[in-house]
Write a structure and sequence with these properties.
The chain is α/β, with parallel strands linked by helices. The protein has 14 helices and ten strands. The two termini are 13 Å apart.
């Protein structure tokens, strides 16, 4: 089975065996052409490990025109199996993967929540993904956490605008432009367009005051969102991915504190919180798993 995730800048494909072992993987720079990147990624893993009947695709925005174009491009290649596998949200696919072979292996009720270039979420209940009436369950990007509405909230959602990579960078740039001194600005010679979220994380580890403050604010937003998800879904386990896993040294303690502040004590005490283990391949792995299940 093959799983594919389409991101803004790249396509990630994996070929799995029946137990979830990765037999081949490919990461292709989208270069502004996600359809070609998807085709190349699938071709690379197929060339490395043979053809497959099952193909599943995950993306942060399944209903986008790019997703439809990818379906049209890849469906003939795999003889229609693609259409039976379908396109799912990256959050749902990652939740399935982490519950299958990742941090939540063997757990039946799971909430997955990740923050990177996008904020994504997914729900697994009784071992089955919960997608909602129109496939939008777990669309955490649109959680409304800030009453001071900004224009980009209408474009990408409140939570994503604040805590996805672009939002974290934007909040640091605002602080620097307001007069605060940060080593991040020095590292890029004042070229704000060159700043990435990794600059902010690295500077926070080096005790840069502005970066630490931005990361603390980020943890507060993320903790609020996570608490909201837990209250609604009442999962056995909350799995945190993206920078919440890769930068857990900066975020995890603050996240736990924020979640504990906002949940009833018995609910928090019963909740298991784990960082994701499958990294950037989680959504592709989950897409493959869902496609395989759809054919049985």
């Amino acid at each position: 089975m093959i799983g594919l995730e389409i991101e803004d800048a790249r396509a990630i494909a994996v070929r799995l065996d029946d137990r979830g072992g990765v037999q081949a993987r490919a990461v292709v720079d989208a270069g502004g052409d996600p359809v070609s990147a998807a085709e190349r990624a699938v071709a690379d893993v197929t060339a490395a490990s043979g053809d497959a009947r099952e193909l599943g695709v995950a993306t942060a925005v399944p209903e986008s025109p790019a997703s439809a174009a990818i379906v049209a491009a890849l469906a003939p290649r795999l003889g229609g199996a693609f259409e039976r596998g379908g396109v799912v949200s990256s959050g749902t696919a990652a939740a399935v993967a982490e519950a299958w072979i990742g941090a939540a292996r063997g757990v039946h009720d799971v909430v997955f929540f990740a923050c990177a270039d996008h904020t994504i979420g997914g729900l697994v209940r009784g071992g089955t993904p919960v997608t909602g009436a129109r496939g939008h369950a777990g669309s955490v990007a649109w959680l409304a956490l800030n009453p001071v509405e900004r224009e980009d909230y209408r474009k990408v959602g409140c939570l994503e605008a604040e805590v996805a990579a672009a939002g974290i960078v934007r909040r640091l740039v605002w602080r620097v432009k307001a007069g605060d001194r940060s080593r991040v600005a020095d590292a890029v010679n004042g070229d704000f367009a060159a700043i990435t979220v990794q600059h902010v994380l690295d500077a926070a580890r080096e005790r840069d005051g502005v970066s630490i403050s931005v990361i603390r604010d980020t943890a507060k937003y993320l903790g609020m969102a996570a608490a909201n998800l837990v209250v609604v879904a009442d999962p056995e386990m909350l799995v945190l991915g993206g920078i919440m896993a890769s930068a857990s040294d900066l975020l995890l303690d603050a996240l736990r504190t924020e979640i504990a502040r906002r949940l009833p004590k018995p609910m928090f005490d019963a909740l298991k919180i784990q960082t994701a283990t499958l990294g950037q391949e989680a959504a592709a792995i989950g897409a493959a798993r869902l496609a395989s299940a759809a054919l049985r």
